[in-house]
Amino acid sequence: MSQILLHNTLTNALEPLVPVHPGEVRIYTCGPTVYASAHIGNFRTFMFQDVLRRFLRSQGYRVLQVMNVTDVDDRIIQSAAAAGIGIREYTDKYIQAFLEDIDALHIEMPEELVRATDHIEDMVALIEKLQQKGLTYTSDGSIYFRTAKFPAYGKLSKIDVAGIQAGARVDVDQYEKENARDFALWKAPKPGEHFWETRIGPGRPGWHIECSAMSMKYLGDTLDIHTGGVDLAFPHHENEIAQSEAATGKPFVRTWLHAEHLIIEGQKMSKSLGNFYTLRDLFAKGHKPSTIRFLLLSVPYRRQLNFTEDGLTQARNSTERLRNFVLRLKTAQFAAGSSEEIVKRIEKAENDFDAALADDINTAAALASVFDLVRDVNTAMDRGAFLQQDAPRAIAAMEKFDNVLAVLVDDDDEKLLKLGFGASKQRISSEQVEALIEERNAAKKRRDFKRSDEIRQKLTDSGILVEDTKDGSVRWKYK
Ligand SMILES: [Zn+2]
């Protein structure tokens, strides 16, 4: 295994990766908060983590990655209450959509994908530990972490803690930057809100305790790597460190990796600017999963990624160039023999690719080594200098690169069809949908549930989401 250098936010330095357990890298990843569909900015971070884990595995490491799903927080509770359903039911459909999205992008499933609401007991136990150590206080039924009692507070985000006021506290899950406060570990229930009855009283966990409890449960007290978007460094990750290290007395994380923001055509992505995209918005505009994957991984994670139409066009062309190259290797006829020069050229590309990724996951440099090889081999083919016996060697190199890049297999149409998109699938018109829904209502009325189920299935297969509301009316939309 060659040495892998990673930029640790904690020390603000490039450091060699030295796993706690030799040969195995344990990674915790802050996953989605499932109150809406994940947006393309979220996928920038998830894509970085995917490249990281794929590269580690290609270097012979075992990877144990845990990703949480935040299925309880302020927004979820409010949204579920507004919809008149439980939070599990409310979040289920967003979890399902998230799984479909990562599958479309060839983002590997983490070894453990864990829901916060399945781990309330672990969070309660961790809060009790902090209580026993005198690091908490209770106010109006909520339990707060006494930030001033953790002297290392601020070490990750380098936030100025001189202004911490004892007792100044904050209740919401996400709060203003630059202001260190006591934060809620456990929140007393508000009337009508979802809550759990526990040993530390009725209520629900704060957002930060969720990640501390679940990461240490599956990965041990000290993790090798903790990843997330750069906006999570404070307060979320700072609070995770405080809770975890105060409870265990051990370092919580060896290496913190933070992915920079994604912007759209040079602007911050926001709903009000109309440039807020989910993955499915981009599929609906005709972009392929492999194009989006390529664009997201092409910019090194610590650089801001400007997501543009031009970038998408280039990404599509680049992906096609790679696929065409492999096709040429597999189908063209070359003169018999092998060339030492070509074999050396291929080996150099492989070494350059690994060296680039070992240098803090420099995907831009890694891609450059691949495209340089493609150019050189294409040139050799054009002038008859590429020989038949070297084709399998070149194909093997491309497949090795693709263990990390995952764009060579042309399954875009298949992935899109699964999600109800794609040219080969005719969208049914809204008139047709309305007619089918009317027919289904009629079938239900005469208690012909077989027929009504058939129609529902037909709508689902056509990419239509049908929702039966409480008042008996039916809502629908294109997936
Ligand atoms: Zn987290």
What does this protein structure show overall?
It is a single chain. The mean pLDDT is 92. The protein is flat, with a radius of gyration of 26 Å. The strands form 5 sheets. Strands 6, 7, 8, 9, 10 and 11 form a 6-stranded mixed sheet that branches. The protein has a 5-stranded parallel sheet with strand order 5-4-3-12-13, sandwiched between helices. The chain has a 3-stranded mixed sheet with strand order 15-14-16. It starts with a strand and ends with a strand. Strand 1 and strand 2 form a beta hairpin. The chain has helices at 40-58, 74-83, 87-104, 120-132, 207-219, 233-248, 279-284, 289-298, 309-331, 340-358, 363-382, 391-405, 412-418, 430-445, 449-461, and strands at 5-8, 13-16, 24-29, 62-69, 112-115, 136-139, 142-145, 169-170, 182-187, 196-198, 201-205, 223-229, 253-259, 262-264, 267-268, 305-307, 464-468, 474-478. By secondary structure, the protein is an alpha/beta fold. Zinc ion binds next to loops. Residues 30, 211, 236 line the site of zinc ion.
